[in-house]
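Workshop exercise sheet. Pairs work together: one partner reads the sequence aloud, the other fills in the structure field after running the prediction. Swap roles for the next sheet.
Pair: D.N. / O.F.
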Amino acid sequence: MRPLEPPLPAGPDRLRVDGLTVVLRRSKVPVVEDVSFSVPAGQIMGLVGESGSGKSTVGLALLNYVRRGLKIAAGSVRIDDTGVLELSGAALRRARGSLVAYVPQDPASGLNPALTLGFQLREAVRIHADQLDQGETVDDRVGLLLDEVRLPDAKTLLRSYPHQVSGGQAQRVGIAMAFACRPRLIVLDEPTTGLDVTTQRHIIETIRHLTDTHDVSAVYVSHDLPVVAEIADSTAVMYAGRLVEHADAAELFTAARHPYTVGLLDAAPTPDRAGALVGIKGRPPRPGGWPSGCVFAARCPYVTDECRAEQPPLAPIAPGHLLRCIHPVPDERRREAAAAPVAAPPTTAGVLEVKGVDAGYGGAPILHDVTFGVPAGRCVAVVGESGSGKTTLARCLVGLHSNWSGEVTFDGERLDPKVDKRRSQDRRDIQYVFQNPYASLNPRLSVGENVEEPLRFFERASRKERRRKVLEALDQVALGSDFADRMPDQLSGGERQRAAVARALIVDPQLLICDEITSALDVSVQAVLVEQLRELQHRRGLTMVFITHNLAVVRSIAQDVIVLQGGRLVEAGPVERVLTSPQHPYTRQLLADLPRLADPVATSS
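Structure field:
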């Protein structure tokens, strides 16, 4: 296949990928097929798509690495004059770190919990000591790295273990390790997922600064479209293992032409307007089930018989704009106007009152005199930076954290801090959905058994009746009965999170507490989940506490919002007022730090 021309004509190519194909090792079924792109020196390319699209597989293949069970079957990856896929053994180990480096999504998984951060940073430099400048020591480079990623109090940090620093600090250490040996290419795999908007802003600025300063190219893998719009120079969109659109970032986010790209943009929430989120209908095909024609045909509103007949090529439709589509979305297509604000259903049950709550861990105070109320049937969003006390508050409400004082009442009944001293009915009426869908389901139980578990505690029902309720709960979250007998590892992150919601709903709660449940989901799955929660809220009259760092999602789910800073409530009120006319400087800063699709793309200074 003839290599594709880069979307941007700037500078020489630092990275060039031609015909990259990754297959399942045993069956030879492709999971990534014939992917080609290039990245000029000193530029950042965003790689976006839904979960399972193959973007992380491509990112890892740039280091000549694949996950267990996969194999790179064809193609080439060249960084400057080096063919990365041609390297092996010691030569490949030297290249990883000095030629190409990787920043993982979860900083906790990328750092050794048994070693101090200082040891790990120095080790990264020592292994590639030949990359040090003349006269420069390992400690000199480590100190410079900490300055570059803006980590203060270096002595304390270097003596700390990964669990003793925040997620944002751990991610900065990971970025410092990646840049330690001044590689030519950095692959960043969802480096801001799960971080609050202020920390996210700092990470984005750090990455942009380091790539500019050291003339490093980067591939930024993410499902967070506003972040990619802000940091990337060009953006490639993947679907079912193939590139479907590739263009200058500013053009792609304002004039996308592929129906899939437009669907992703429509699903992205915004803090500037209220209304329903629109997910992409259907599900992407799994490897081995790709159709012979356009892979997006089953979900495309513009599909014709011609689309199903054969796969369209990735071809230019404008200078630097590549598209794999027979029927591009018209240029004049734009996001629809703002919808009506989110209304609350009429109900009287589920009133939550929180008065003067102080909480802490050991001797360290976390929450200070927090007072707010949640009227029956309404959703209150709780927002703030990491460490502001959001999750601690949620755990106090549900009874998972008992070291607190103050008063919490639910439907007029005072709740004891210790969950085992609460009434059985209160434990049933207040249900919790955890942030991490990969850790909240028991991997040794089927999906149906996970969903059924609460019924064993709160009801005496026959096996047939429990099965009926499980299938009904799965249907309510749009999973269907065929998911009941699957194991959690057979589900995507979004499907697992919906199963967790079904488990919480199966006992008919009055109050649902959702703790950052959309933080790890791509925009289309997030849109589907948020809209399902809205529909369930109206159908059941649910009262909800929705913990999030994403203020853009708040407009689409909540009627009221409270803002926590350092464990103190600094602003509260209706969503429309707080997000339109914030009164507290901290709230204004959170909104200013939030990436937006309309923001100009960051450029080199």
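Discussion prompt: The chain has 21 helices and 22 strands. What would you look at next?
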